[in-house]
Amino acid sequence: MLQTAEAKCGGMPLIDACKEIFRLKIPPSGLLGWSPRLRSQFGYYTPDEWYEAILFCLIDEKTDWLDVGCGWQLFPSNRRLADVLSSRCRSLTGVDPDESIRRNKWVHEFIQRRLEEVDTDRRFDLISLRMVAEHIADPEAAVAKLRELTRDGGRVVIYTPSKWAPVSLIAAATPMSFHHAAKRILQGIAPEDVFPTVYKMNTRKALNRIFGSHGFVEESFLYLNDCRALAAWRVTSLLELSCERVLRAIGLPYPENCLLGVYRKNDAGSFD
Questions:
Q1: pTM for the whole thing?
Q2: Mean pLDDT across the stretch 57-65?
């Protein structure tokens, strides 16, 4: 397993890509709010930023990119990056059954269907699933479709919560009404953007098993410490970041974490 401090993508240290992602979030005024300023002081990058850094490294002008479950936006916390990558890639297709995809200004074209229902002769160099895997009820069918849509040597990037993270365990044991209220209070997410979760492919073992059975190999895998559960308030955010720093310093895992895996169709190499 690659450690975040050592990980590279296409020869570029991933931590450098994270710094570029963070820079893109800085407003023209150059003034940061208390939350990004606090994270910067701790040298902490969010799981979103690690995921965005992977795509920043992998997408170039020759990339045909398919984003699954994008809804009306690509990167909710970094619209400038969405502008950059949407313009950089050769093509960007969005897939989502929800009609909100019709409002997505970054995709070049969209398919308003479930992933398993996509019917196209096109093949893609990169397929990304941001916070989608935890909602997939039939992983075998989904990954079979991903294999069909991926060019030989192409990659699938999976970014999803860990099944064993405290927030995931709470979500699995509580009704949707609780999810709606918690997401609204803690993260400001509207109820219509909260969907049922099943966590059938939310461990590294499950992902390797499912993707391996469909001809993919794990090219890269990261556990990403997630200090966003109580990030809405300065005091609790400070406590989360302090706890994460201490655990990281003594080599212990932070309990709340996300998974970031890159799977390549027909092994054609790995990250440097």
A1: 0.89
A2: 97
